[in-house]
Amino acid sequence: MHPNAAFRLDDRDLHEALIAQVGFATVFATTPDGPRVAHVPLLSTGDGAVQFHLARGNALARHLDGMTALAVVNGPDGYVSPRWYADSAQVPTWNYVALELEGRVRRLYQDGLLAQLEGISTINEARVIEGIPWTMDKMPPDALRKMMAAIVGFEMEIQAWRPTFKLSQNKSADERARVATGLEAEGSPAIAELMRRLVP
Hints:
Split_barrel_FMN-bd
């Protein structure tokens, strides 16, 4: 899909909230071995960069340092049926939220990697409803060193933010309400809720 300008919400706080809520991204880069992709937990530094880590054996791990890469955070999505519109001369489409982040990547030293792992676990442990949150200090030091030796940490300085919040902004308020109701009924309540909250 090629979104038009109506679907671009340039709200950095909203972008940061999406990164924090989803906490996961797909990283793409062109390497000497060809195009490669990795799926990574993602942590925003809050100052225009994001951090992630890869297994040392990942095809991207040995190439990323110093490269320009693309990270994509996908939010909720849902199929939009033409039957939900008053005008029958419509075609199917898809409402979705996606944030593309492009930037230069640098490798993190061990202390930066450890801080990243602590940040990711702290954020996500806070979401687990039952029990006492797990913390890094529960790992025996030797076991932690061994685990950290198996991964490589990176930080991407974001040079371009390309958000798409395709929420039927090109339709009337009545049409959007019908689409949101349809999406919710068909099992896509998250995208329906964003339509109601983010589109006036």
